[in-house]
Amino acid sequence: MKDFTYYAPTEVVFGPATETRVAEFVKKWGGTRVLLVYGGGSCVRSGLFDRVKCSLTDGGIPFVTLGGVVPNPRLSLVRQGIELARTEGIDFVVALGGGSVIDSAKAIAAGVEYEGDIWNFFMRTAVPQKALPIGVILTIPAAGSEMSDGCVITRECESGDEKKSFSTNICRPRFAIMNPELTFTLPAYQTSCGIVDIMMHTLERYFTRGDDMYMTDAIADAVLRTMMECGGKVLSAPLDYALRASIMWGSSLAHNDLTGLRGQGDWAVHGLEHELSGLFDVAHGAGLAAVWGAWAEYVADYAPERFARLAVNLFDIPAAFGSREEILTTARAGIDAMRSYFRSIGMPVTLTELIGRRPTEEELCHMADMCTKNGTATLGSLRPLARKDVLAIYNAAIG
Predict the structure, then answer these.
(1) pLDDT of res. 210
(2) What's the average model confidence in pLDDT over 124-129?
(3) Are the C-beta atoms of residues 307 and 331 closer than 8 Å to each other?
(4) Cβ neighbours of residue 213 under 8 Å, at least 6 residues apart?
């Protein structure tokens, strides 16, 4: 068994009506003046926004609000939030929403405590040393940002938006309030995107070399099987509390590093997708589904036993672990089965399906350049991908 350090300090408050206790937990974690970050739309129409504001008001906690967060959250709003937090003397940030809102809150919290440009963290030219504390009221289970150390933001550019990330333990939320009832009205497409995102956070960690982390693998298998089962049922039973609760908790388990104790993970699929959503502004989960199969086929030779294990454990494909060719046959059957599952929940499995047309060669080359810093870096760890590899995967994913 590999050595590891595991750190997951977020206090989870799970159950109906827990959003009404936000003031209690802000006070518990030292907050006295809050910036409430949110998207808009459904959280306002549903009355959730007002319930949260009432909790803060009744708890005697002053607050200011920052709305307008969009999917693939924008750097411009993060910068606006940093200035607002400084001007208003904010000492605690509360995110009301899904991954885009939480990631925006994390970037704001880190940026307030930094004298330079917040984008330096994403370019890896600076490392956050401190950040304002963060709390979360989760409304979209998908990104797992409610318990993770990661943050993904998009910078608007004329030549095509850049989507980049940074990770630091100081940005892990102090608390995460999770009421599955808040997800009852999520559209089917958004629900399916979330299922794929949850699964992919587990799969990215699953595909590393070495097979001696049996407990970690068992937990990963359980998360994947549960998400597949719930994802297949919840689209026809959107008000089923048990299904929604399992999905919401699965979001956190998939990205709080519990399934990643076997190593650093691969993360190539996320890198490939970040350029897709940066260029085409597509939903992250849909982009992951569209590119995963092409990536899996391209790298399967480098870890055929891992892919074959997944095929047997998730899809009950008959085990064939004799010759290398038998193992690869099992692995490829599992890859095909995963594609079929994504399609069964309404997800695209090709780039053409994802964007509604065939991507141009210029677009594919642009994304390959962005993935590999114009050919000077590789992507992923299972099989490090050079620019030519990335371009080959994009082409194979066209469909």
Answers:
(1) 64
(2) 96
(3) yes
(4) 1, 2, 261, 262
Q: Mean pLDDT in the chain?
A: 95
- The residue to which tokens 């992507």 are assigned: 379
Pairing of strands 175-178, 134-138: parallel
Quickly count: other Cβ atoms within 10 Å of residue 116's Cβ: 10
SS (H, E, C) 325-392: HHHHHHHHHHHHHHHHHHHHCCCCCCHHHHHCCCCCHHHHHHHHHHHCCCCCCCECCCCCECHHHHHH
Task: Assess contact for 38 and 101: CB atoms under 8 A.
Answer: yes
Distance, CA of 26 to CA of 36 (rounded, Å): 11
Q: CA nearest 104: which of 140, 141, 79?
A: 79
DSSP string, 255-281: HSSGGGTTSS---HHHHHHHHHHHHH-
pLDDT at 153: 97
Of 344, 342, 345, 319, the closest CA to residue 331 belongs to 319
CB 144 within 8 A of CB 247: no
- Eight-state DSSP code of residue 180: G
**CA angle, corner 57, sides to 53 and 62, nearest 5?**
95
Phi and psi angles of residue 106, each rounded to the nearest 5 degrees, phi first: -60, -45
d(CA 87, CA 345): 45
Going by C-alpha positions, the residue among 396, 199, 193 that lies closest to residue 314 is 199
Is residue 48 classed as helix, strand or coil in its secondary structure? helix
Query: For the residues 184-201, what does the mean pLDDT come to?
Result: 97
Average the pLDDT over 29-35 and give the result: 98
Name which of 129, 77, 96, 87 is nearest 26 in CA terms: 96
The continuous run of DSSP H or E covering 284 comes out as helix 284-299
Residue 293 has pLDDT above 80, yes or no: yes
Residues contacting 78, CB < 8 A, separation 6+: 104, 107, 108, 111, 118, 153
For 311, residues 6+ apart whose C-beta sits below 8 A from its C-beta are 317, 330, 331, 333, 334, 335, 337
C-alpha to C-alpha distance for 265 and 82, rounded to whole angstroms: 32
